[in-house]
Amino acid sequence: MDNSVLTFPAPSSTGALGEGMKVRVQPGSGKLCDDTELTLTFSETPGLDTTSLRPVSIRFFVADHHSREKAAAELDKNFKRADADVSARQKKANDSRRKIQQSIKDCRQKINKLQKKLQIDSIETPEEAKAEVERLRKEFEDARDQKDRPVQVDWRFSEKCKGMPGVVGPVAELFVVRDWALQSSSSSSSSSSSMMDTSEDLLLKARTDNYKLARILSWHLHDRIEMLIVDSEENANKSYQTDKSIRVRPVPLKAEVRATVNRIAGLQIQPAGGGARGSSTGTADNGWPFPVVYAVHQLEPATTAVDQLVGLIKNEVGAQYAHKIAADTLKALAFELFHDLLVVESTDEASKLRINYRSRHLKCPTIVTMNGDRIMSNGERGGKGGSLNPQFQLKAVFGAMPQNRDGPRISLENAEQLESQVGRMRELENNKETNTLELESLNVEKAELGEKYRKEKAALEAASAST
């Protein structure tokens, strides 16, 4: 309407506004729903006497109902769109917050579990976790360098053996004992996840159990645990002539080694209920509710012993075959020392095992228990030397040091996982802080949006009421 021209009806001949009188509106028009005082001025029209006309001010109330309703609808539409956008971003931020909180909870549980395994009170920062990893890595490397060192050996051999040819070492130094803890856990774990956790916990305390098994097997061999092993019959005779006080024997003949190794691999525990043979681990597939193992399956050649024998035979058999032949030779030696000796946890289990074998007219091997008892293959038990006194000091003990390989390794792996989780926790805490700031900003934005909408809505309603 600004600067537009309005035409009024024809006036009377008394000098009022005549036909064709034009009224120009100025200023202030053009604002919708605005209460504005407008001044009318009259333009000269040819043939019209305007000498008697006076300027006059007229107050106009502009009321465009159609435009106001349209403006109100547009205001509602824009507000709803903006409000929905803010609400969607709030929902997304809240969903993200819940995920972050759950991740923090899971991460904290993992950290607590790892700290418990590592027997650490509290590690809260990545720097502390990194320092712990470095400490355990050094322990692991130190243990790796000493991985096959025996726990207890009578070192009087060292001086006497210096001049003897073809010496591999005393029996006590030739083997290490595998983890009895794994055999025990295999019959008691109800699920793969619980078995994993149980196995890790048992490995961390395996030193006691494995050393106990090493003592049992060493006690079963009696004096032969100190027996000196050499690489050939010829060198066995020379050693005997040098010092007849030392018990000595050669390694098994090469022609017999392969057949003996195959026989070891074929050893299987008779199943509890008869029928198909089970595995050698005493787990559920052979029906026994407790672990039953062959002693020979619990021994593995020590790395130092294999290397020593490799050095003695590599020129004869060739360097590329020497390591396998040396390892197989020591495995065959273990079978010749222990044959089909069985190991169980307790005397009660040994009795049940023997009764089951005999009731089915099966030959039952000699059985030893982790408690230090022995039942001979002919059923004989008790008497002097029939059980191991816990206080009895053996002449030598197998190098039962699996914890030097597994304990520090597992501790290091746990510490590395802990370092990762602590770093993850810091990242999650930062994400949570960022998320909190985002939610606060969105809340302010939503409040301001609502306040602006209410003010504009009130202005429209006031203009409507005034007309």
Description:
- The protein is an alpha+beta fold.
- Helices cover 54% and strands 10% of the residues.
- The chain folds into three domains: 5-62, no CATH class; 67-136 and 417-466; 148-400, no CATH class.
- The chain has twelve helices and 13 strands.
- The protein has a four-stranded antiparallel sheet with strand order 1-2-3-4, with no helix packed on it. A four-stranded mixed sheet has the order 9-11-12-13, sandwiched between helices.
- The longest helix has 65 residues, at 402-466.
- The protein is elongated.
Biggest sheet strand line-up: 1-2-3-4
Give the % helix: 40-55%
Tell me the series of helices and strands, N- to C-terminal.
Answer: EEEEHHHEEHHHEHEHEEHHEHEEH
Spans of at least 5 consecutive residues with low confidence:
1-38, 59-63, 147-156, 185-205, 275-284, 401-405
| Tally of DSSP β-strands | 13
**Derived structural class:** alpha+beta
Biggest sheet, open or closed, and with what strands and sense? 4 strands, antiparallel
Average pLDDT reading: 75
Please state the CA-atom Rg, rounded to the nearest Å: 48 Å
Count of discrete alpha- or pi-helical segments spanning 4 or more residues: 12
**Number of domain units:** 3
Strand content: 5-15%
* Cα separation of the termini: 19 Å
Instruction: Give the overall form.
Output: elongated
